[in-house]
Amino acid sequence: MEDPRYHIRIDDPEKVGKYVLLPGDRGRVKRIAKYLENAEVVGDNREYFTMTGYLNGEKVSVMSTGMGAPCMSIGVEELKTLGVHTYIRIGTTGAMQPNLKLGDSIVPTAAIRGDGTMDYYLPKSFPAVGHFDVISALKEAAGIIGNPHHLGVVLSTDSYYGRFFNSKKAAEEVDLFVRAHTLAVEMEVSALYILGNVHNLRTGAILTVREELGEDGAYVKQAGEEYEKGLEKSIQIAIKAIELLIEKDKGNA
């Protein structure tokens, strides 16, 4: 039988918490883990770099997932076998609405399923929706931390550069989604949310705007100091949301 944790290379359930934060970039794991007590490396293989520490006495982990739905799905499927029940993606995103500014936080309530990975699980007619408890905790945490934040639908796509090759098709599709008030585009939320439904897991996400739109609909501002400040705030919001969930879970125990 194939090793159920072949990719993340974590064999002991005691090495990870039941609450896991999921950045895409492995370079962001330590940046997040600094908010945990006694954080240490527990796994390092391929794109999956994992650290575990403590938050309010509860074990919490941070694991990078790499880019895209396939990598997200593999990571979550393997974490699930270790008993993880709560997942929050901490990612970056490109704005699709002009009112979104660099460094703003987005809490996706749902995602348009532009990926292909989740088609192997469920048809497109099944929606990718976050868990109410996690979304609520993120919204409350955003208010506490104080960063500008937005709730709504995002677009999850598999292709980063495909829009340049087939620009006409991309423009038509994006225009439709923009008119439907889609907030932003990214690559992993749909996979996380579908897996949450399939496996009865609690899932949520917080994204930081990395590209800001100008009046003509083109990106005019990217990354920079405003983005970095916002990203740190988004990380703090995710940490606070985990604290709120831990507190709620202990109260319901």
In total, how many domains does the architecture comprise? 1
C-alpha geometry: globular
User: If strands are numbered along the chain, what order do they take across the biggest sheet?
Assistant: 5-9-8-6-10
- Report the strand count: 11
Written as H for each helix and E for each strand, in order along the chain, the element string is EHEEEHEEEHEHHEHEEH
Helices and strands: which structural class?
A: alpha/beta
CATH architecture: 3-Layer(aba) Sandwich
**What is the alpha-carbon Rg in Å?**
17 Å
Pick out the low-confidence regions: none
Q: Tell me the β content.
A: 25-35%
N/C terminus separation: 36 Å
Q: Quick check: average pLDDT?
A: 95
> Tell me about the biggest sheet?
5 strands, mixed, barrel
The portion of residues assigned to helices is: 25-40%
Q: What is the CATH superfamily classification?
A: Nucleoside phosphorylase domain
Number of alpha- plus pi-helical segments: 7
InterPro entries: Nucleoside_phosphorylase_d, Nucleoside_phosphorylase_sf
Domain Nucleoside phosphorylase: 18-242
GO molecular function: uridine phosphorylase activity
EC number: 2.4.2.3
